[in-house]
Amino acid sequence: MYSQSNCQPTLFDSHTLDNQGRINNPKLLTSNIDEALEILKDWKDLESNLDDNLPILIGSRAAKYHLPSFRETNDWDLVVTVSQTIELLSSFIIGSIGSFQMLFYKGIGVKIHGYYKSSKKNSFTFDLDLVTNGQETIKNDVGSIVELLDIPIVTSSKLIMDMCREDDDITTIPPFGLKCRVASLEVLEALKTSHIFLPANFSKNISDLHTLRKVLQYAQRIPGTRSLFEPARDQSVANMLKIRTKETEIISEIHGQNFNRNKINDDNFSPRLAVTHDELYELVKYGEQSILKTMRNDLNSRIDKSLFDNADYFTQLKCVKEEAMTIALERYIVPRSCVDSEKAFCLALSHICTASIDAWFGKFAVDNYPRLLGCDKDLTQIAKDIRNKRKLKKATDDISILSQHFPDSDSFSIVEKLIQQTQEFNPPDLILPEPDDTNVQFETFRYGLRISPPNGKGNNEQKRGLECVITVVYKMQEENENKINEAWWASVSVYPFKVESDDSESVDQSISDTDTPNGTDPTTNHPFDYDMINDDVEIVELEQKHILLIYSDHGGAGLSGFGDVESDSDMSPWVLTKPADQVASELGIPELNGDFLVRYIIAYLDPELPNGGDYPFRKAITTLEHKKEINMMPKQHLWFYLWWYATYFKGGDWDIF
Hints:
By secondary structure, this protein is of the alpha+beta class. The protein has helices spanning 33-44, 59-66, 82-90, 156-164, 185-194, 202-215, 235-254, 277-284, 291-294, 305-310, 313-336, 341-355, 359-367, 369-372, 379-402, 409-421, 581-584, 594-605, 615-626, 638-649, and strands at residues 27-30, 56-58, 75-81, 97-105, 109-116, 124-131, 136-139, 145-149, 170-173, 178-182, 422-425, 440-451, 464-480, 483-501, 504-507, 528-531, 536-539, 546-554, 574-577, 653-655. The protein folds into two domains: 4-254, no CATH class; 424-655, no CATH class. An eight-stranded mixed beta sheet has the order 1-4-5-6-3-2-10-9. Strands 11, 12, 13, 14, 15, 18, 19 and 20 form an eight-stranded antiparallel beta sheet that branches. It is globular.
């Protein structure tokens, strides 16, 4: 928590907003390369004051040119004039373009995204920033102007071209033999800084940023006892960075990225934690007193910047690490059963860098990131202690939470009994093979719940309870710095377990087969198998226990998130379900049917698809409510609505769009 008085305002200009104060979506000018060439040829006639030299190569490809040890990349990011764009697009072989979009961003300009397919195994994505004269026109078939595009005279692309037009570093764009200049390391570092606050691909971007700063010897000038900070830049580079950051904020808002540091994001913290935020500070503190608490004027305030600035450097580092460890426990380890302390710590540090309420706190973390790495506490053990403490509060806490989903007294009386029999557990980790593509990243989350048999008995006087495992897999693949593809896989499996004795339990092997296909979940709870490079999703043979499967992907033209995708065609949400009456009967509770069991399990574990993945499903359910096809009172968890509608109205197979 940080002092609001130091919040940094956003950099939007009023002309980027509509009459209701909302950010305008980018306008798709065309997805056809021939139409794009016609538009560009009209613009070329007006291109009088641009000295047409060579395109400017930016991004990771440019860094790789300067630094051969830099990571591999398959994209070409270029700053181009209209004439250069025509030359580049005209050189493409007919039928070689896998995807193509020409977009206009109000207040920024025109960008072109595409994918070039080649049989010679040198396929690549390309991202073109166009430098124009300002206002451009769109004409119809008879040559009449149908639209004016108001493009700023000064854009970051224009400044980049002006700064780099005399650079001596020149390379060739395969397979066409076209030449381009390579932006300097100073320009590349500033460009990386301009979007470092975005959550998408943060771990890769922060590594790239500090690689560039290290090569430029920025850190070597600062002793280890003093804070790292942004380098002093030439005025021209500083001006470009300011404008580029503003443009990135506009684009990221359009595509659903959250960078508004004026908004407190407490809604992601688990309401079931048995300890408060301040109590977690005490569990991760370095000394007698939490450093975070010494940085606040009172218990309810956030970190005060003046107190932070007056502390010595090592205390500042520990302050950030205490906050990161607290967030790791709150967001990842306790509620999501993440067992890797270091991974959770890095995720939390990423959150501080990209979503801190105060820009100054996040900026300190970004600049000093290399010195913050490494979790100093065993967060897994702390989480175990927290879970043990939760057992003392669970009955009271969960009754309060679940009462929202079961408001009538008859239903809630069953819930009260189930809570006494319910315990969460950590399912086995889902082990995924390493992807061949270095631009592919995965996150996995697992939730486990065990319902013991009432009074030790189930059907036919057998001691049989139920286990539930929820698995979520999130995949992110970057095509270029402004475009990523995303996919989500989720499953809910419920199966009986036998209570062999008072202190031993075993899963019913007739329900949970252990002979699984290669490359899939060894517990068979997550029945997905897929090709990590080609995104081919395949369902392994389903068992009765797989009551809910969710899949969605997003290959939109913009930054991560579903917030304002251009159309539903960018998404492919899909739901598979099975009835749950049979497995519910295993508990031997007459009032407990499949609907009730699914509603209880999902409400109790409260799963979600990360990074906006729930959006298309929420949109589908909201549409059904508006059509009065479903009644959302009392309000239930989104995933229950998906299961219920797919089961009873779609025969268990719902292809939403």
